[in-house]
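HOLO CASE FILE
Compound: manganese (II) ion
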Amino acid sequence: MTLTANLRLDPDRLWDSLAEMARIGPGVAGGNNRQTLTDADKAGRDLFRRWCEAAGMTVVVDEMGTMFARRAGVDSSLPPVMVGSHLDTQPTGGKYDGVLGVLGGLELVRTLNDLGIRTRHPIEVVNWTNEEGSRYAPSMLASAVFAGRYSRDWAYDRTDAAGKRFGDELERIGYKGTEPVGQRPLKAFFELHIEQGPILEAEGIDIGVVTHGQGLRWTQITLTGRESHTGSTPMPRRLNAGLGAARITERVHDIAWRYPPHGVGAVGLSNVYPNSINIIPGKAVLAVDFRHPDLSILEAMVAALHLEATKIARELGLEIAFEPVGAFDPVTFDADCAGAIRAAAEKLGYTHRDIVSGAGHDACWITQIAPTAMVMCPCVDGLSHNEAEAITKEWAAAGANVLFHAVVETAGVVEG
Ligand code: GLV
Ligand code: MN
Ligand code: MN
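Model generated. Tokens follow.
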């Protein structure tokens, strides 16, 4: 049995839930600051848990704090179809990055309940811990542990800028669960997300069927020079780590420009020490983010960085150290899952196109262990990782309706 095209979820209920979640961890400019493992993250998780339980789901938390809310299927021996994303945000994050995918999953369960529809496979709505990676690098940490890329204990030992351990903070907010990580077999995983880029809006298209995700390499660079007086140290005697950071920052931009149209690169984190107006920085730490859909080009960008940053440091008399702090290779999503998304968009009468994800997503890890694909909807001006991030209720509903049909078809509708 298939779902008929007239079955849609409740756009107002989805929109109201997005607005209610956005009240937790407000930012300073209309968005959100609900960084992972903070009190605001805990409050967001608590609200999600209450909503899931009210919808009749059972919530389990694993040792990485990832929350799995399960709606039973008719055959409980079958693996679940998983749907979801993340509730944590950047320090100056938007209201929809990640949240739409989690609450779109919740809304589809609420709709199934309203319609009295049962599925053969269980459906699980997931909230992955620390997708953003801004407080604890790397991003998509819990899904990476789930996929076997990192060990749980390695993740627990990550520290934030204040030196607080991931494992301790997870315990502090009460979300260190007991289920061993990665023990859940999955039938499939579907993630709904805003595009975070300008293509869909510019082309007036409702739905992106995500067929690929570009790869990423994060490299932390530490430059060591010598602290000295800004006024009295003659120019030839300076070992200025801040100058090295500035030159490398510009070079990162240049390297990305060598690989148009897909090469991108930036230094988003940059600190000089001791950060005093009249001390030449003796140390600088910067983190470089390069992305490209082609692995060989991605690696060429990183190789160029090593070579050219080393030369810059040598010219300035600085020591330089490189540390890889995040990496995933370009991914190809499952053709059948992408096909289910495309078919749902067709059935519901939405315009759609295939698209490559520019951002990283938990789906990029889960695709390594289960059939996975993503649905994207437009966002205004392609703007994201900005408190002004915006979408319309109609875009959210279209994305969530496609998710609903793709997930339920994959889970199998049971007659009667
Ligand atoms: C996650 O938001 C990323 O793409 O860095
Ligand atoms: Mn996201
Ligand atoms: Mn994000």
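CASE NOTES: The radius of gyration is 22 Å. The chain has a mean pLDDT of 97.
CLOSED: yes
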